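Preliminary data (for renewal application), FE2/S2 (inorganic) cluster complex.
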Amino acid sequence: MFEIVEARTLARGIKLFVIEAPRIARKQKPGQFVILRLDDRGERIPLTIADADATAGTVTIVVQAIGKTTMLLSMLEAGDSILDMVGPLGKPSEIENFGTAVVVSGSVGTAMAYPTARELKRAGNKVISIVGARSKDLLVLEEEVRAVSDETYVVTDDGSYGDKGLVTDKLKELVAAGQVNYVLAVGPVPMMRAVANLTAPSKIKTMVSLNSIMVDGTGMCGGCRVLVNDSSQFACVDGPEFDATQVNFEVLMQRNNMYREQERASIERLQADPEAELKRIRDSVHSHECAAEAAAVSHE
Amino acid sequence: MSNPPTKVPSHNPLPNKERVKLPRQRVPEQEPQVRAHNFQEVNLGFPEEQARQESLRCIECSKPGCIEKCPVSVDIRAVIDLILAGDYLGAASKVREDNALPAITGRVCPVDDQCESGCVLGKKGEPVGIAYLERFVADWERETGQFGSPVSAPATGKKVGLVGSGPASLACAGDLIQMGHQVHVFEALHELGGVLVYGIPEFRLPKEIVRHEIHVLQRRGVVFETNVVVGKTVTIDELMQDEGFDAMFIATGAGLPRFLKVPGEHFNGVYSANEFLTRVNLMRAYRFPEFDEPLYPCTDRDVIVVGGGNTAMDSVRSALRLGARSASIFYRRTLVEMPARKEEVHHAKDEGVHFEMLVNPVEFLGDEKGNLTAVKCIRQELGEPDDSGRRSPVPVNGSEFVTPCSVAIIAAGTSANPLIQSTTPGLATTKRGYISANEETLATSKPGVFAGGDIVTGGATVILAMGAGRKAAKSINAYLTGLVVVPN
Ligand SMILES: Cc1cc2nc3c(=O)[nH]c(=O)nc-3n(C[C@H](O)[C@H](O)[C@H](O)COP(=O)(O)OP(=O)(O)OC[C@H]3O[C@@H](n4cnc5c(N)ncnc54)[C@H](O)[C@@H]3O)c2cc1C
Ligand SMILES: Cc1cc2nc3c(=O)[nH]c(=O)nc-3n(C[C@H](O)[C@H](O)[C@H](O)COP(=O)(O)OP(=O)(O)OC[C@H]3O[C@@H](n4cnc5c(N)ncnc54)[C@H](O)[C@@H]3O)c2cc1C
Ligand code: FES
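Predicted structure:
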């Protein structure tokens, strides 16, 4: 059982959770993720570790509610518990002194890229962050990002905050100025693909974080496989970060659509009576807590 | 482990010539047309009277071939006699002397290559239904709730960590706790049991049975911790240095799926058997939407499964139960070479599974949305025997053909997961990435670290994994009591 010690809304549909998970907090590195399961009927979903405190034994995740599981998770509050959480999974981000590193992120991707940006800064890079969102109310962690970046640019699709436009517009300027040594892009697939296309001609080392659909997260199922350099790689163990020039984004998008119909049905079921579903998972987790306590007592 | 067959006064009233005339009892099963649409257990097990009838067939050989052929040498002759004496609990205890998980092996052991292949009755007719009898006594024990847990030795104060919760670990845990050690099992997934819960489907091995075995171990004091990926969450060295484990047993299985490495394997609808079975069994996708895990739809569609082992049979029969319009096995050799248990092949046939022999996929085809539409195969013929002694398939030039299908499941074997090997300095591995362990002691190259089951042998069987767990427990006990254990 993994207790939520803090929960707060960061932006419309985006919520931050601080969760007690001492083993994960001790071992995690920037770029790694956890897989969690809310209750005993739930699916396992991957979420990036946005921050951690080894002393307090907690990890922080930032979640955008886009489907059944993330919506339900977003209804939880401090004091609630999550049934299963495993990690840290995946390879940590590559951290070295590249020179000038540009971190490009879109909406919730900003939370996912934040720990890597911080680590790049610590490693001596000049860090330039380009943070994008559809509109102002979807922007997260702006203050945190500014604190670890030498320069920060905010762009919104609708111009409601920062510059109006796309993250790639800003990146294009920087690349044209010729001072970029490294790019990390984290966000929606079309954005990452655009970044990859943009930096490819100038051969700037560019990494993207691939959000494929996962089950176990340990290399056991192969469901997360992505086409990289025309061969199958498992995003959960070989990634999630890959060299952008090698990634087949088309296949990634197609595979992420694999369960469209079922996902839609699940959302409809949830929305029909969200409170009942919330109560059901709370009861289920509570009964597991009781069972675990009983088992502990019988050992003594 | 191999104890000589005990001489017991026989409880069989029949003379041998009467016994050999008795027909093998047919085990009650769900009707094929019914079971092909549900996930409940197919084989319903012997009722008491049938178990007694079947036991009467045993002619009590002086050199029982069945015991010789059992990888852990269960004293089958004595077990059968105890059944005839009406002492079912005694029979169960007798099995448990050598086999820690009889309700499980009684359901999944490859008996056609083991005990039953050693039965002399099989030379002229049909062998005694040993697995059914084993299952009968184990189920009797569980259903009557009479399993008295053996008394453990006094606490030694030593702490042993087991990695993985498959049959190798469960068997090892049972023996170590008995010897008085503290036992802590780490499992990567959220549920305990290894392949027994994520691989083998409910209709062949109800999860309730695995859960029962785990509860028994919990009651005896074994501590289980799920959601720990050793090598990621914590390393072997950290467990030994910082968390005070005196010895470790690594039993992480052969969990990595092998793909065919042919074009088109990325199309939606192409699954590894591991993923398909994990979604269906571990995540209960067959009960979607009550359970959240989705599955690429099989209902009213054509499903093909590539492979000929138990994993292939489990996949194809699951697809059928999910409402597939057609469910076919595509295997590159013939029925004779198929490694699956014979019972599963028969069950699959009765349920309506189609078998396409001597074919091998060369490409998967899909539409513009990235969804699988067909598989292109090439016909094979059998050539010379390969290393495994089976005749190896050779492609027939120009014999390619295309079969439409919406779902393709690849059950072409598994390999070792490198997570622990790559994060444990000093742990020697084989060329193929399995952990090297001494055959007699299961000691690895690293002091205090032992390994067994599929992670050492490659994909094998439940009974062998369990046997390895017990062997490791013996060595670990010797190691902890200061005896020298031959390292690898
Ligand atoms: C390594 C990794 C790290 C991630 N980190 C974060 C994070 O820090 N914060 C966060 O909010 N999300 C993160 N994601 C995405 C997150 O896992 C998905 O949003 C989640 O699985 C959706 O589950 P659901 O049941 O809510 O939605 P579903 O109903 O399953 O899906 C809703 C929609 O999301 C798409 N989708 C489904 N699965 C995924 C997926 N795995 N990734 C992306 N889109 C998906 C589908 O196309 C569908 O249209 C990460 C994904 C990966 C692989
Ligand atoms: C579909 C299928 C059907 C089968 N049918 C039969 C059959 O009918 N009869 C038969 O005899 N055999 C059968 N087998 C083979 C048999 O199941 C295996 O040989 C046996 O389970 C091996 O046991 P094990 O304990 O070595 O490993 P496993 O059962 O594989 O268990 C290993 C466990 O370790 C966990 N693990 C892995 N890595 C880590 C880590 N780093 N940290 C923590 N935990 C970890 C895994 O999650 C898993 O739970 C079948 C196998 C499959 C896949
Ligand atoms: S999620 Fe199963 S192998 Fe990556």
